[in-house]
Amino acid sequence: MEITLQVNGKARTVDVDPRISLLDLLRERLGLIGAKKGCDHGQCGACTVLLDGRRALSCLALAVAVEGRAVTTVEGLASGDDLHPLQAAFIEHDAFQCGYCTPGQLCSAAGMLDEPGPSAVTEDLRTDPGLTPDEIRERMSGNLCRCGAYVNIVSAISEVAR
Amino acid sequence: MNRIEGRVKVTGLATYAAEYPVEGLVHAFPVQSQIAKGRIRQVDAAQALAMPGVLAVLSSEDPPELAAAASGELALFQSREVAYRGQLVAAVVADTLDNARAAAAAVRVGYDPDDHDVSLRADHPGLYKPDTVNPGLPTDTEKGDVEAGLAAAATVVEVTYATPVLHNNPMEPHAAIACWDDEGRLLVYDTAQGTTWSRDILARVLGLPADRVRVVSRHVGGGFGSKGTPRPQAVLAALAARAVGRPVKAVLTRQQMFDVTGYRTPTIQRLRLGADAEGRLTALEHVAYEQSSTLEEFAEQTATPTRIMYATPALRTAHRLVRLDVATPSWMRAPGEAPGMYALESAMDELAYAAGMDPIELRVVNEPDTEPHSGLPYSSRDLVGCLREGARRFEWERRDPAPGVRRDGEWLVGTGVAASTYPARRRPSRARAVRREDGDYLVQVAAADIGTGARTALTTIAAGALGVDPDQVHVELGDSDLPAAPVAGGSMGTASWGSAVVRACEELKSDGREGVADTTEEIEGDAQFARHAFGAQFAEVRVSSVTGEVRVSRLLGVFAAGHIIDPQLARSQFIGGMTMGMGMALMEETLTDEEFGGFLRRDLAQYHVPACADVRDVEAVWLDERDVELNPMGSKGIGEIGIVGTAAAIGNAVFHATGHRLRELPITPAKILMSRF
């Protein structure tokens, strides 16, 4: 069936198998390899993209279910040659090694910066906790990094969140 | 220096194996055995072949041709015998991934099952002594009289430790794209930690001359040993592509990775330690029991670190292996050292308590002058320096050794220490360096960057050897058409490739245009030394007396690993290894399905690896060593030492916090709570 969605600001119309996930649509049909397949079950976060500005797991979304919506992948974070501040901070803080979880970490972090409100580790639910290292660690725990770059990921995000 | 490939990695442009845009690509999806042992009666592919988009079904009904040399895990569909549950028994090739996966579920495989045995036991009747242990080390060593040493000891510790099946779980699943050209040459984009070796093995399995196979792996999404040799997906893609006459992509699912890409063997480790009144060892014995498959022998070198750590007049190490109806274990970050040092360094902590000594002082009084089992001098060894520096940073002198007495509300608090070590080896490598027309320098070596930062480190090394700015150096790696090089494994990558790069650059400097190097002769001429990196890890844990949860509030590693080539990359490697060590200590465990064979917990929701919230204060520092007996850079490998000793440091801290010694990893909340009853 034919669907149209906005991908990194451009309308893309594709004839799809109704079984195809948004992740496979991006990777196998649209040539956007930034979103990674780490588990295909919503357990690792490598496939995280922004869906209408909110972070979402593209392996758990059927492509046909996101018709008409705006998808931002890691390829859409930078403005031309200017890296997104998170991308620049990840390089400066060495916040990745193999790089396979990195697009998901970046999209997740970008979404997180715009998510107000308390989390499971917030002490006082009546006040905005701000993005302290504890809050970042909690809110970024859906994105696994097997190389163990978490210490540097938290420092990179902290620099941008400041 | 920031990573050279940093920009392509953060913009999503770095191309991993499954991501090459290849014209006319179709997809292969495997079918796995549902039994642990027996024979395949028949593979009924009729229904699958009638489904949309299906091009072929491969199975032992019509075995695809492989070389007679193909054996073990890579001899796909050659035999009707099933060696373990989860083994690949068929595969569907179809136009899309969704069609291939749907058709794979429709392939009917009939079996004649036999009784299986998947349980490792220290009294298993099938235990035997392998000829060698990985990577070709002696299986057993014996020096002096262990029984006499124990009889003469003032303090004796006899303990058994156990570690579970562990899975490497790199974030990038194993994947391959295979393309045959009109002249019968094969190009494989693979997830390989070494393209030279990968090419050689694939050529041998497929019965091709090596110069007709090319393996490309420019970016690899982690491996930790599991991509050190070709895995079934590479052979599957090649066979499927040959069968359908089109390029084929084969990507394993996370669940399939647990079954067919290797794992760390479970271990049962028996240790006996004796010490005199001053804490000096009178005897040390370490025996490891491990498993392999019926397909291949892989014997992990678990007791080998005990051969090099501490001075003792009586030293015995041994390995015993049993072949079970399981998948073949393989390399996982620091095979041997990671599980072996967990047991040795936990037992040393037990000895310190039994002898009433500080665990750091116990290690210091047992510092050897030469390598205990071989008598060779160390090229350099600064374990004591690491222990002292860590103690200073951790304020160890203020520690009350009494276990189970520090409380902060519901939390019991404790600290622990353990030593780390890993061999500093290098292997022969080739490299080429040329001056380009634009004046910059091109350096070529079939190295692999699996996240270690090899491109960046080799650029630094080449720039240093040429005496030019790193911006003028361009390193090409990840392609078997480049000068032959060993794998990124055994913490040997930088030492091996770097040696060849330095020699090629030296020749280029004298020649002016080109330098080529092969370090085979140079390495054969290396003097006889014991070459190892050492370190000390310190952990502070908080253990909930209510839930049994263990939180690592602080983890410090101090390492003596030769000259550190790039501080930023090195720190990332050390803390990455320590983070994986934290997973080994507290959460990582694959269960074996005793009833049906195969593994349970075959995904990342059940096999827990450390997440961001688990990792708080992790720091790594190092003592710079000058060691001229290593390689031109004076460096020791650092990819694996970070995971060595972490689990012992954490386990020792849990004992200090709770007063309970838990001798089976991982240290889960259930085990903490059960220890109180």
Task: Considering the chains and any ligands shown, give keywords for the structure.
heterodimer, A: alpha+beta, Ubiquitin-like (UB roll), 5 strands, globular, B: 677 residues, alpha+beta, Aldehyde Oxidoreductase, domain 4, seven-stranded mixed β-sheet, five-stranded mixed β-sheet
Question: What can you tell me about this protein's structure?
Answer:
The complex is a heterodimer of chains A (162) and B (677). Chain A has helices at 22-29, 85-92, 102-113, 133-139, 150-161; strands at residues 2-7, 10-15, 48-51, 54-57, 70-72. With 162 residues, chain A is an alpha+beta fold. In chain A, α2 crosses α5. The model of chain A has no long low-confidence stretch (mean pLDDT 97). Chain B is α+β, with helices and mostly antiparallel strands. Among the domains of chain B are: 21-115 and 169-260, Aldehyde oxidase/xanthine dehydrogenase, molybdopterin binding domain (Aldehyde Oxidoreductase, domain 4), CATH 3.30.365.10; 430-524, Aldehyde Oxidoreductase, domain 4. Chain B has 17 helices and 28 strands. A seven-stranded mixed β-sheet of chain B has the order 3-5-1-14-11-12-13. Chain B has a five-stranded mixed β-sheet with strand order 9-17-16-15-10, with helices on both faces. Chain B has a five-stranded mixed β-sheet with strand order 18-19-24-25-28, sandwiched between helices. The termini of chain B are far apart. Chains A and B meet through α1, α2, α3, α4 and α5 of A and α1, α3 and α15 of B. Chain B: One of its GO terms (molecular function) is iron ion binding.
